[in-house]
Each structure stands twice: as structure tokens, then as C-alpha cells.
Specification:
With 154 residues, this protein is mostly helical. It has one domain. It has helices at 11-24, 37-48, 52-68, 70-73, 82-93, 98-116, 119-122, 140-147; strands at 2-5, 150-153. A two-stranded parallel sheet has the order 1-2. Helix 1 packs across helix 6 and helix 2 (37-48) packs antiparallel against helix 8 (140-147). It is globular, with a radius of gyration of 16 Å. The model has no long low-confidence stretch (mean pLDDT 93).
Amino acid sequence: MSAYRLKYLTGLKLKVFLAVANRVIPPDGAAPEAGSLATAGIVDWALERMEPALRAQLLLLFVAVEPLGILFGGKPFTWNSAAAQDRQLRWMENCPFRLLRLGFFGLKTYVCMGYYTREDVWKSIGYDGPIHPETPYPDAVIRGLEQGKLEVVS
């Protein structure tokens, strides 16, 4: 199995991303976990294709989420309880500060995109796959990530 090395979701950004992913799509036991390297790999691949200034802003949001947790549970985001993390994310979703609110929706969008493009998730949501699975993908890396054929390493 080949490997995909994370370029953007590293260190604290990866830790926050995984924690947020598990709150946006909470584990239920029947489906693969959202807060996993498999999801992070797909999102990292997509971040590479983002406009650099916008990517920098989104990655800054990952860093900003951590200390904001102190206001919602007394600890940094990744150390807080699930309830405190949920309070913080609900606040961000409805935040009066437009950039923070938009950043939250960007983060949530990337979590969902990274999770639901994984083929190992499809059965748990009753999806049989694309209508034309034989259509070639222009990028073998994203296809390998979606199929779980590339191991994601941080």
C-alpha cells in the first residue's frame, strides 16, 4: 500500500480537524469514524487545490478553534468534553462575526466532503456508488484516498 503524507493538516491543525470532524459527524458505531486520517487525507488533498490565501485563512481557523475552547469548557477545544465542543461549534455556526461563521461553514463543508467521498462510508449510508464507476479519475491520488488504497500518514 502506498502512502499519502499530509501537507497542511499537521500538528495542532490535524488534532483540531479530527476533533471537529467527530463533532460534525459524531461516531455511531455502525459507520467509520469521521475524525480519522482517512478523512483528513482527502481534505488535505483538496486544500492543495485551494487558492493559497483562502487556504491560509481556513488553516488559521483550525488554529483559532483550539484556544476558543477555553470560553466554552474551560480548556482548549480538543481537551473539552463533547458537550463543550458542541457548544463552541454551535456558537461558531451562529456567530455574529461573519468571517468566523463563514469559516465554520467552510470547515463543516470540508469535513462532510472528506467523509462522504470515502468508499468505506458508502455502505453505512446505503449508497451503492457512482452510476458510472468505470469513468476514469483525472487524479489517481484522490481515487486512492477515496478507496482507502493509500495509507494517510501525518
